[in-house]
Amino acid sequence: MLALVLGATLSLATGATEKPFVTVNGKPVSQADADLYIGQAHAQGFSDSPQLTDHVRDELIRREVLFQQAQKSGFDRDPKVAARAEAARQKILAQAQATWEIEIVRAYMQDFLKKNPVSDDQLKAMYNDMKAKGGSTQYKVRHILVKDEGQAKDIIAKLNKGASFGDLAKESIDADTRYNGGDLGWTTSSKMVKPFADAVSHLHKGEYTRTPIKTGYGFHVIEVDDTRPLQVPSFEDMKPMLYQQAQAELVDRMVKDLRAKATIQ
């Protein structure tokens, strides 16, 4: 039913003088219908060929003779069937409208970005800011996250008595690190929430926090396994990513400005 309605929708959009792809009992089936089927075949990896054209022709004939017979049998006049068909048609029209709008928006966005180019100076400023925020050190960090400060203090007390950090990590509520010893891997201060980053920056290799560190996630016990100098990629290596980021920020600002000016009810 969906294909039938889609075919009818597309046929309405084509010109009356368009040469039909095929005619069944005097009723033309449009080239647009055929193009739809061919496009679906392309999406599935099929290439253009006489065999594909013949298959599409057979499928459209099959669909059309079934549709005509269904009409003769009065199913298009059955209220329940007609309601379902109309709902399907409206859904397809809504999808077509959304696709149309997306194409218009894409063209506008391309024009906007063309008229608002990102300069190398902007990208270099972003690069320098990223380097400054990232610091000069990478940390290999482990943590144990709990909800209660008292529990975090108990864990620290056990560590002070020689307990294994990895064993105690099983008490963590962080499901991603609970069973790997609390390992967060190599990271930088810029990727940590501030209280966590501040605590890590004061730890040397092999040290752990002697008091619980509170963040929005709960209370952490943190250990620094290792440190190494941060190897920052060159500006040229980072340039494509920075360019995409800069364009995304431009678009975000533009959209926020449009929203601020819009009347939304």
Descriptive terms for the model:
265 residues, Trigger_fact/SurA_dom_sf, signal, 4-stranded antiparallel β-sheet, 9 helices, Chitinase A, domain 3, peptidylprolyl isomerase
Task: Please specify the SSE layout and strand pairing.
Elements: H1 2-13, E1 22-24, E2 27-29, H2 31-43, H3 50-72, H4 79-115, H5 120-134, E3 137-146, H6 149-160, H7 165-168, E4 183-187, H8 194-201, E5 213-215, E6 218-229, H9 235-261
Antiparallel strand pairs: 1-2, 3-4, 3-6, 5-6
Helix pairs in contact: 1-4, 2-3, 5-9
Please describe what this structure looks like.
The structure is a single chain. The protein has 265 residues and is of the alpha+beta class. It has three domains: 105 residues, no CATH class; 42 residues; 93 residues, Chitinase A, domain 3 (Roll), CATH 3.10.50.40. Helix content is 57%, strand content 14%. A four-stranded antiparallel beta sheet has the order 4-3-6-5. The longest helix is centred in the middle third of the chain and has 37 residues.
Residue runs with pLDDT of under 50 for 5 or more positions = 1-16
Largest sheet: 4 strands, antiparallel
Kindly report how far apart the N and C termini lie.
Answer: 37 Å
The strand order across the widest sheet is 4-3-6-5
Integer tally of domains: 3
The rounded Rg comes to 31 Å
* Content-based structural category: alpha+beta
Q: What is this structure, in a nutshell?
A:
It is built from nine helices and six strands, in the order αββααααβααβαββα. It is of the alpha+beta class and 265 residues long.
